[in-house]
């Protein structure tokens, strides 16, 4: 009469290698996209996003506004995305999913804010009012540069990194885990049994109140 063995069938080495290789590729790609996207957003925020002219004392002066003056949302969310990109390796299971979702949402929010900033004129109007001393002053000849769209593209890279983390994050390693490759905790090592015939071991046994000459 046959019986069913409770011993799990070991996973083939080729299958394990394929899973590990896929996880490493997705990990490297997510890190590259996330870091590159955040860098692009942060650099773009320091560039000129809008330009125009303001009337001052019968003449005109040029005014301009960088990304930080137009909107600070992309910069803030890029920093959040970088923090989430690092934190995704410090958590496991549900925590990793939540952090990966935060990473994706940071990218999506930064992209939307940068896109909306490409047509914003409030920052230039405020600069024109400051220069002219007239709170009702408005900018003439308003033009926008391509930098808001560059920032939006960088934010989309952060979004893609978050989507990779959501899809493949379960196969990525975590920092500080005392686990073997199989995921099982390491068994504690047993101390080597002392030799009852060695003098130092005899003394240690006597100190513990044991009789080293007594056989179990």
Write the layout of secondary structure elements.
Elements: H1 13-45, E1 48-56, E2 59-66, H2 67-70, H3 73-87, H4 93-117, H5 122-132, E3 140-144, H6 147-168, H7 199-207
Antiparallel strand pairs: 1-2, 1-3
Mean pLDDT: 78
Shape, per Cα inertia axes: elongated
Strand content: 5-15%
Number of helices: 7
Structural class per helix/strand content? mainly alpha
Biggest β-sheet: count, sense, barrel? 3 strands, antiparallel
Pfam family, one: Trp_oprn_chp
Transmembrane segments: 26-49, 69-91, 98-118, 146-166
Biased composition (Basic and acidic residues): 195-216
Organism: Streptomyces omiyaensis
Summarize the structure.
This protein is mainly alpha-helical. Helices cover 55% and strands 10% of the residues. This is TIGR02234 family membrane protein.
How does this model look, in words?
Residues 195-216 have a biased composition (Basic and acidic residues). Residues 184-194 have a biased composition (Low complexity). Residues 179-216 are annotated as: Disordered. It holds the Pfam family Trp_oprn_chp. The chain crosses the membrane at residues 26-49, 69-91, 98-118, 146-166. This protein is mainly alpha-helical and 216 residues long. It is built from 7 helices and 3 strands. The chain has helices spanning 13-45, 67-70, 73-87, 93-117, 122-132, 147-168, 199-207, and strands at residues 48-56, 59-66, 140-144. Strands 2-1-3 form a 3-stranded antiparallel beta sheet. Helix 1 (13-45) runs antiparallel to helix 6 (147-168), helix 3 (73-87) packs parallel to helix 6 (147-168) and helix 4 packs antiparallel against helix 6. The longest helix is centred in the first third of the chain and has 33 residues, at 13-45. The protein is elongated, with a radius of gyration of 31 Å. It starts with 12 loop residues before the first helix and ends in a 9-residue tail after the last helix. Mean pLDDT is 78; it is low at 14-19 and 177-184.
């Amino acid at each position: 009469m046959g019986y069913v063995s409770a011993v799990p069938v070991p996973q083939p080495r080729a299958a394990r290698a394929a899973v590990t290789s896929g996880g490493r590729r997705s990990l490297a790609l997510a890190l590259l996209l996330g870091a590159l996207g955040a860098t692009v957003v942060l650099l773009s925020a320091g560039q000129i996003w809008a330009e125009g002219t303001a009337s001052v004392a019968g003449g005109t002066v040029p005014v301009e506004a960088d990304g930080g003056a137009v909107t600070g949302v992309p910069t803030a969310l890029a920093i959040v995305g970088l923090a989430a990109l690092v934190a995704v390796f410090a958590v496991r299971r549900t925590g990793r999913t939540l952090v990966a979702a935060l990473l994706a949402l940071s990218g999506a929010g930064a992209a939307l804010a940068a896109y909306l900033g490409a047509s914003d004129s409030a920052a230039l109007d405020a600069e024109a009012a400051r220069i002219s001393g007239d709170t009702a002053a408005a900018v003439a000849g308003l033009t926008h540069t391509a930098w808001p769209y560059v920032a939006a593209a960088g934010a989309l890279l952060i979004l893609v990194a978050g989507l990779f983390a959501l899809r493949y994050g379960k196969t990525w390693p975590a920092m500080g885990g005392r686990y073997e490759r199989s995921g099982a905790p390491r068994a504690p090592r047993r101390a080597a049994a002392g030799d009852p015939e060695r003098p130092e071991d005899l003394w240690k046994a006597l100190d513990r109140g044991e009789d080293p000459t007594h056989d179990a």
